[in-house]
Amino acid sequence: MILTKESLYLKAAIFDELLSDDFESVPAQKKETELGAKRLAAWCHAASGGDWNLFSKRLKRDNLKYNYVLSRFSSAKISQKIKYPQWVEDSLWIQTVYQNQGLIPKKVLFSSKRITLPFESIFFNLVNESLGLLKASVSSKALSNFSNTAVDDISYQLLKSLSNFLTPYFFEGFSKHMELANKKKKRTSTTKLNENYNEYIAFMINNKGIINSFFEKPVMLRMIATITRQWINTNKELIRRIEADQPEINKKFKLKFSKSNNASKIISDLSDPHNSGHTVQILELQDRNKLVYKPKDCGLDFKFAELIEKLNSEKGSLDLRVPKIISKKNYGWSEYINHTELDQGDDGSLFFKRAGAWLSLFHNFSGTDMHFENIIASGNHPVPIDIEMILQGSSSEHLSGQKRRASMDLANTKSLNSVMSVGLLPSYLKASDNQMIDIGGLSHRLHQPASNKCININTDEMKFVAKESKIKVSTNLPHKKNKNILFDKHTEIFLKGYQQYSVFLNNLFKNNGLSYFLKSFKSHSTRKVIKPTRFYATLIKRLKSTSLMDDGIIWSADLDFVSRLCDWNKEKDSMWPSIRQERIDLSEFNIPVFYMGVDSKKIINPRGYVCKLDSKSGFQQSLKRFKLLSEDEIRWQSEIIKISTFNQLNYKKNITAYPIKNNQRKNIEKFYFNEAQAIAKTIKDAAIRKSGSASWLCINWIGETGMSALAPVSFDLYGGSTGIGLYLAAFAKVAKSKEMKKISLEAIASVRDDVSDKNAQRFARVNGIGGASGIGSIIYGLTCIGEFIDDEKVISDAKCAAKLITKDLVNKDKGFDVIAGSAGAILSLLKLFRHTKEKWVLDKAIMCGEYLLSIKRTSVGNVSSWVGKGFGLIPHTGISHGASGFAYAFSLLAYETKRQDFKKASKDSLDYDNFYFNKKVTNWPKVNTNQVEGPKREFREKVCQWCYGAPGVGLSRFGMKKFGEIEPKIFKDDINKAIQAVNKNSNISAGDSLCCGRMGQVEFLTEASFASNDKSYLEEANNYLTHCVENSHKSAYQFGGAEDIGLHLNLYRGIAGVGYTLLRKLDPTLPNILIWE
Question: CA 555, CA 540: separation in Å to the nearest integer?
Fold first, then answer.
């Protein structure tokens, strides 16, 4: 028995199909209405996070009404005029394959050895049947262009796709089978090898276990049919196209493609699947020559190759290289670029000079996406192998267009128009383990992020383990003797290449105009990335889970996760039609792909017209950049290159000095004030101001890597506009400055909208609840600013932010700590509670505390604590990510609620913290100290910062004494240890910042003086502070990255933090932001 077409379509249809004319509503029974409500709730949760008001707006955009959708979701029948989708038709013969297969599946006979795939035998008959259909769809002449091993590669593609998709499902079933088998019988010497695995496979195939799975998971059958049909169609195209284009291929690429020198190998998995399963493939001939097949429009690549040839003929060119291209309708062929070594005596300088030239050309051609996968180092040539994203139009979809966000839009525009947008310079992505990965075109990548790999495949011992893949050499960098030549040795020649080629292009533009460059591109399209590929890939990974595949509507609800990123502040969103197109592609496990004419604002995809953007075309963008290509512009972009490559290039600037005449108290106060004022002025002068809002371009720190990038300022307290606004408001209070009060309000104009407009819930979901980097940081920052400038409207917006912390949002927290998680949210909410005394605010903090208590802690010996995602396996010490922060947060909760479970959690965290105190180095070292050696190990052992080490630990204990509960003996002992640690290790910090440097030490010693009435600590703190300021006048404040105070503006790792420390010397009533006072 198999699923009929009608039954399958009813069970596996996605919601777009069920709401189409393919179906009709019928009266529903009570049980069916309950199913309809369940389906609708799943859709609401996926599209709007369970916000029914927002979901009603989402339905309205598609002209849908709640009752109509509920009725159709509850009960429907198939329309009489139905034409079934292809996947339904294919599902019938696929079921027949499994219905009719014999006791032993017919193995796919590969002519060469292949890597065994998990549960592969379940798919053998399906692959064989599919291969038969493929062969029947092409001529024998066309197929003769492929050797048996190449046909094997084609078959293996399908086998691998099916195995990758369904291994998690079958592995779960196999694990249950193993568990039952182990209970029933014990292994003996007569037990057959892999008996349990073989029993499970026999059950799935011979006992129709797979057929039963189709009944239980009809969407799974749908996706098997979809994957199989895509494989048949795409490979049919490839085989036919090779036959049609072989003479032209041989002539263009000087190959000898023939029956006797046919394709012997096909390499797949070279790109994301787009447009019904199309991917880039490499064909290797018998004589080892290679050819690249690109199943997309290659007209842009062809015209670009012509332009490079023309540029290379001009005097002053650097002889750039691109692949040769054959452009056909909707596909093309490309020359294969080998990753060849540098010649003997070549140090790589010319390679990096040419790379600088490419940066200039791509920037002026409004190009993006030149990351490491799109560059091949061929000798001393960096060769771009995919230029589908040149001539990009302006990114209006990334701009709000709203008055209070006008300055932020300007900052984003400035960033998007810089050389950073090209992708060649260092740029970072956060991996699933919270590590930051440089994906820039010149990055050195020898490791792939760890991923789960199956080992002991198809045995009783089969399991998954996390494995990191290693690469011998990065193919995007030049190499000699299997060793890469790195960018950090050649940043100066790279910069020179950029500057020289920019002048070269500018002269050509002045003499010939834009038509010299762009005339031949006019009728072509460029790819338009609407949402990051990484977002789509994550969503597809979620969709591949079979857990919801018993119901097509509930499964497909997750397709509408793309709606969450829409702008709900607008009544109409010009991009809305793209949402449906995204869902169509994602429902086939394809990355959505869109295109835009280089002289047009229309967005299209392979199915046709999608929508129109209110933006500049790629031509207009390129014209604007060429017109701006002056000496001043080249100088500005050169500064960005220096900043972006600072870790490779030692780059410094001097800062105006304010000399100290003596150390008398009166003059020191004036000195501190003058410096705080100079910092405020620097921040004001760097501001991008418009329509009552302010934003900045500044150095943003990349996670815990110590790497930085120039980017528009973020929203938060740690590194964003809320922190900068807090400093300016504090200065306005101390200096009674109306001007700085105004700018402080401008700094938070955007974030106040973020927490109160129609997109607020989405904003909260994206950014989390942390006390330094999430919604908690906004609550704390706005509360402080409201107090500083005596503005209850700002406090009211802090309450709006607090209301965003819902149970659903808290349950998604995986950071847990003070910086990014629930502990920080507790501290921030309690700050607001101390101001408002409103019980609902305290209830929110309690909710966060109860969530943390529900999370299993990680034990080390007899002590335990929480460890956030991405911070390793062992919980940390200290305040930012570790036990001091948890102890502090729970101490405050215990004080406010008198709850013993919170008090115990605080004490447990203190025990964990002190378990790691090292008497030898007099410190609470980072717990992963033993993972490094040499200077790095010494630094981690003795690190003396707020984030890690004694200053932060000590400040947490002062906070507990002020606002919470701590045993007097523990307080006294820990403070004494922290003071000794700071005295001994004060030089082990990273510069002058509050988070990682001397300002954190100053704040700790100041608190120690107030707590003990020992003025020597205050004197020591003042000496530290004065010394930092004096040194900055000789060179610059030390924050790492580019040493330009006009770029290091933020609160926790920039000049705003230095300024705030200075202000607290002038007005000690200002709260200590390092303990969320």
Answer: 12
Instruction: For residues 265 and 147, give the distance between their C-alpha atoms in angstroms, rounded to a whole number.
Output: 8
Task: List, as one string, the DSSP characters of 3-64.
Answer: --HHHHHHHH--HHHHTSTTEEE----HHHHHHHHHHHHHHHHHHHTT-HHHHHHHHHHTT-
CB 718 within 8 A of CB 1051: yes
Instruction: Kindly report, residue by residue over 333-360, the tens digit of the pLDDT.
Output: 999 999 999 998 899 999 999 999 999 9
Give the integer Cα–Cα distance in Å for 544 and 586: 10
Give the Cα separation of 168 and 931 in Å (integer): 33
Q: What is the mean pLDDT of residues 217-231?
A: 98
Q: Can you read off the two tokens belonging to residue 815?
A: 């950071």
556 contacts 14 by C-beta, under 8 angstroms: yes
CA dist 459 and 869 (Å) reads 32
Residue 231 identity (one-letter amino acid): W
Would you say the pTM of this structure is higher than 0.85?
yes
pLDDT at residue 934, rounded to an integer: 63
* Residue corresponding to tokens 């869902």: 583
What pLDDT shows up at residue 219? 98
Q: Which residue reads 């604007």 in tokens?
A: 624
Question: For 591, phi and psi rounded to 5 degrees?
Answer: -75, 120
Rounded to whole angstroms, the Cα distance separating 190 from 185 reads 12
Q: Token pair of 139, please?
A: 């001529």
Residue type at position 836: T
Nearest to 537 by CA among 432, 455, 456: 432
Q: Are 690 and 967 in contact (CB under 8 A)?
A: no
What token pair was written down for 842? 């305290």
Angle between helices 124-136 and 218-253 (to 10 degrees): 50
For residue 805, give the nearest of 751, 857, 768 by alpha carbon.
768
Give the bridge partners for 25, in sequence order: 76
Residues 503/630, Cβ–Cβ less than 8 Å: no
- Give the DSSP letter string of 505-558: HHHHHHHH-THHHHGGGTT-EEE--SS-HHHHHHHHHHHT-GGGTT-HHHHHHG
Q: Tell me: the pLDDT tens digits for 448-457?
A: 666 788 999 9
* pLDDT score of 648: 35
Which of 59, 54, 56 is CA-nearest to residue 763? 54
Q: Over the chain, what is the mean pLDDT?
A: 90
CB atoms within 10 A of CB 838: 12
According to DSSP, the residues that pair with 603 across neighbouring strands are 596, 611
* Rg (the chain; Cα; Å): 32
Tell me how far apart the alpha carbons of residues 549 and 414 are, in angstroms, rounded to a whole number: 45
Distance CA 67, CA 898 (A): 48
What's the rounded Cα separation, in Å, for the pair 700 and 689? 19
pLDDT digits (tens, 9 = 90+) for 651-710: 333 233 334 344 455 688 999 999 999 999 999 999 999 999 999 988 887 666 566 778
